User: What shape does this take?
Amino acid sequence: MTLGAYDYIEKPFRVEKMRLLLQRMAEKVRLVTENAFLRERVNTEDNLDGIIGASANIQDVLRMISRLKDTRTPVLVSGESGTGKELVARAIHFRGAMAQTPFVAVDCGSLVPTLMESELFGYEKGAFTGAMKSKAGLFQAANGGTIFLDEIGELPLEMQAKLLRVLQEREVRPVGSNESRSVDVRVIAATNRDLETAYREGTFRKDLYFRLNVVTVHLPALRERRSDIPVLVHHFLNRYAPGTNLHVTPAAMKSLLQYEWPGNVRELENCIARAVTLGDRQVIDVNDLPPAIRAEGGGSTQTSFPDGSSLSTTALAEMERMTILKVFEQANGDKALAGRMLGISCATLYRKLKRYNISVRSSAENPQTVTQS
Ligand SMILES: Nc1ncnc2c1ncn2[C@@H]1O[C@H](COP(=O)(O)OP(=O)(O)OP(=O)(O)O)[C@@H](O)[C@H]1O
Ligand SMILES: [Mg+2]
Assistant: This one.
């Protein structure tokens, strides 16, 4: 046993016992293999934190990442939606010396308020109805590694106070417990809101703001670094149409370069994914782009509309809704697959499904159906 035998049986043995033992061993072998497989996938897939960009802006961001990766300094990543905040957070963690420690991403915007505290800090058995056994929270899960608090600006004031205490004391107290557990985590927070304004207006705690914001990595909007567009297009073509020779016509590239990209890199990614999915030719031409993007490059002066921004945001929402529906169709209603195809996390996908009133139902005959309510 000391040398690593799994178990032993005493003579005389019963077949039943032998069978049980073999079953357990088979299960263990399966788990070990599965674990190795998952570990490998995590290493190659999730850690593929390829941050693409040619602009001086993105080069600055990359330099910041390499300076921060081996520190325990709290980092605030700011930038509009879709600029790559999560990508940067992952890069800071996975490029550093602590890459083998846990990285736990928490979407503060999609946590159910009543469950937030128990999710973050855990709970004791019997803390509330349904708490059959005690459970560790996300902070404990991230112990020794990094916790990524996404959309930190969405955290209610009451939770902000609790979070601040955890960061100051370096310990969490599970719901329903009198004892604190010490936790050692690096915090990376992200926000698309202007937290400075938020704390001036009183919706975000100033003390928490300063605790989180020791270093800020700001991601500029895509329209402020248009020189990244061609390399990003190339990158996404490789991702969505690997091994093909699909290329973008100069006219289409002109449209892509001129568009305002209110949804930033994510919108560009969706745009390429859509063109790859819907187009059936060897090239991506202007006609394969959504109308809003086409219009701006087509010489018309759409952007001079006084309310141009809201116009393109509406168009963006519509495009996003269409893309999600289409991708769901392709993915046969498989949420995890759809999320991967769209390049968004499950949490983000759920938020979007809710926002666009898209419900995905399972039924016995028809494995998964997508409907719009
Ligand atoms: N510089 C980049 N190079 C390659 N891919 C990028 C880059 N920036 C963003 N992306 C891709 O764009 C998508 C959006 O990025 P990410 O989720 O990190 O953005 P975000 O700022 O967290 O957005 P949100 O505020 O909407 O959550 C992802 O699929 C990501 O891989
Ligand atoms: Mg994000």
Observations:
- Residues 50-53, 58, 79, 81-87, 192, 232, 235, 265-266, 269, 343 surround adenosine-5'-triphosphate (ligand 1) (CB under 6 Å).
